Amino acid sequence: MFELRHLRYFIAVAEELNFTHAAARLHTAQPSLSQQIRQLEEWVGTPLLRRDKHHVELTPAGQVMLAEAREILERTRGAVRNALEAANRGAKQISIGINPSAQVKVIPTLLPIFEGRFHDIRVVLHSLTTVEQIASLRNHTIDIGFMRPIDDPDLVTETVLRENIVVLLHVNNTLAQLKRIPPEKLLPFPRINVVRSLGPNLHDTIEAFCAKVGVRFKTITIEGSENIISSISSVSANLGFSLQPDYVRPILPKNVVARPLDCANPPTIDLVCAYPKGDLSPSLRAFLSVLREYRSGNKF
Asked: N- or C-end of the chain: fewer Cβ atoms within 10 A?
């Protein structure tokens, strides 16, 4: 079984693409670092790196592993933060669950305004899937969450913004030269599938669109592909195309492009905020007041 140190060592090598530099960064000996990477590859069951005396690069499996390793370490750090927060519950704060869309399109605009007006309220952000946010709202780990639409009788939801679904393609894909992509032209290529158990709204939106336009793609399902980084990494490795909300544009690597769909009524997906029914804390009321003001002004 691998340990967290294996992930830290792998991330260092993947980011440096040089064992000597990674060993110096980790303050460890290079032979020990190489051994840790081999142990991780043996546990995973496939090479994560291609290396020779002069060159190191990630395999497709390594690209996916890098995204997942970063997320695991971030979750671990988050667990430590949550424990510290639990020890200081008397502090005046608001805990907010965010998905990648909110992290790109909402939080950078909203947070500076909120903190400027309510500088005495501490803001704690939690990067969580929709499923995780619902659970966190129920156990009061977070006060409000930004997620895809849900139907939950115990939660209040408000639409924050609407996003277009776009096609992510490797730059070497012949369709990348088009400004807009007709859905039927994607048929020869595999679609990177969204795992429904983790992202039901996005999954259902895409499946409903495919049924409406009458196309049936061959699919590749990658565990964790609801995580946008995993989906992008799969496209970057030229494993297929992906249909994703357009917030991804600023975070795409150079070898991945986003193109709008060329069809009538292209698919869209909403981002909502959700919070428990009942009395709202002063901190949450303050946050909602700023959110509603800027949403009404179409600031996002």
From this structure: N
